[in-house]
Design a protein that fits this description.
The chain is of the alpha+beta class. The protein is built from nine helices and 21 strands. Strands 1, 2, 3, 4, 5, 6, 7, 8 and 9 form a nine-stranded mixed β-sheet that branches. The relative contact order is 0.13.
């Protein structure tokens, strides 16, 4: 019924993961250990958040044998309770993430009611007490002809790999950014398969001012911390909601586009901005559009969403309509945009056909220099504009 009424669901780039995250199994170390060593298990390696790949279009997954020198035999042998009780902040623990099960592989792990090939991600960035082991893994991979693909935008991967990469990168980045507790400032420990960081009550190392001070034979009682009482949002990965919107004129025949100064010539996109606390998505769309362009909006409709792992955003795509008389562009409020203008649907339609690309990349064959340039099809901005010119709004105002 919903598909007939609203159409096919839009799955934007970085979404549509083939993995069942089975999030409730992350505390079951028997399950994680079985998954870790299963013959169908795959590990995606990252060095400074750059993924291991054959080339920019193909990730390379490795086996447990390849990561064994870094993570050891049984990283999940002890329970979370034991690991917390024995926490030693002078010892670097490899950052290992459990991503989920690929249930398409019927030869995968069978555990209770669940079946699939396990996927993990591992940070092999040389650091702390595991630097030499990490460097050894990196050298082996590079000797085999693989490389850690640099650059923030991994936009050329197949859809399934892109979704797996996005999940892994966002979580590794969050763990790397939060080695200390935001409440009390003490070092934290990654648990729950990499999806939570806890502030242990004791430390096997004597901490004076920093990690790596003198080792004490007995656990040191650490200061009280509010995150150890109940559920704390400081202990879990954050996702920052961002609105991105295709704005149509009151008559539905034009689209508002803008550009930043650093962008290549003729390159425009839709407007976007962060959702602020105690603000609805619709309110954020109206506020951001007015602040950046001076245009005033009426109806706002959510179109689709896109995970954006740089570092951990959720792009909430919307299509909004200007109120009659509110189409005057005024850039005096927020200086973010260098220029904004209204584009006819035919101009946008032609740009979507031959003028799309990533920043600084060439357009398609048939593009004429000086015409409008737009983001590539893997960007949600492209999908929003395509929806508008494809009839989402219609010939007459409907919002």
């Amino acid at each position: 019924m919903l598909s007939r009424k609203f159409g096919k669901e839009v799955a934007n780039y970085f979404s549509g993961s083939p993995l069942n995250r089975v999030s409730f199994m992350r505390t079951d170390h028997s399950f994680l250990l079985a998954a870790l060593k299963h013959p169908t298990s795959s590990f995606l390696l990252f060095n400074n958040l750059n993924p291991l790949a054959k080339d920019p279009t193909k990730l390379h997954y490795v086996s447990f044998a390849d990561v064994h020198p870094l993570i050891g035999d049984d990283p999940y042998l002890k329970s979370e309770e034991q690991l917390i009780a024995e926490y030693n902040s002078t010892v670097t623990i490899p950052q290992l993430l459990f991503l989920g099960l690929d249930e398409r592989n019927k030869q995968g792990l069978e555990y209770n009611a669940y079946n699939g090939a396990p996927y993990f991600a591992l940070d092999v960035t040389p650091k702390g007490t595991i630097a030499s082991q990490a460097e050894s893994v990196i050298r082996k991979m590079e000797a085999l002809g693989f490389q850690f693909i640099q650059g923030r935008m991994q936009m050329s991967l197949p859809a399934a790999d892109a979704a797996i990469y996005a999940q892994a990168r966002a979580l590794l980045d969050w763990n790397a950014r939060n080695p200390f507790c935001a409440q009390c400032g003490q070092p934290t420990l990654s648990i729950n398969g990499g999806m939570k960081r806890t502030c242990p009550p004791k430390d096997m190392a004597h901490l004076s001012t920093s990690i790596g001070a003198n080792v004490d034979a007995k656990p040191t009682e650490r200061p009280d911390c509010a995150t150890r009482k109940g559920i704390s949002n400081l202990s879990f990965p954050r996702t920052d909601p961002t609105v991105i919107m295709a704005v149509v004129s009151s008559d539905g025949r034009r689209v508002l586009i803008g550009r930043q100064k650093r962008w290549p010539p003729y390159w425009y996109s839709t407007l976007a901005g962060f959702v602020e606390p105690a603000e609805s998505v619709e309110e954020a769309v109206r506020r951001e559009v007015w602040e950046e362009s001076g245009v005033k909006l009426g109806r706002v409709v959510i179109h689709s969403t896109q995970p954006w792992p740089y570092p951990a955003n959720l792009m909430i795509g919307a299509i909004a309509q200007c109120i009659p008389g509110g189409e005057t562009i005024d850039l005096k409020h927020d200086p973010e945009l260098e220029h904004a203008r209204w584009a006819d649907l035919d101009e946008v339609r032609e740009a979507l056909r031959v003028g799309t690309s990533g920043l600084g990349e060439p357009a398609h064959e048939g593009y004429k220099e000086g015409n409008l340039r737009l983001p590539t099809g893997t960007a949600i901005a492209n999908q929003l504009l395509a929806a508008v010119v494809g009839g989402f709004v219609g010939e007459s105002p409907k919002m």
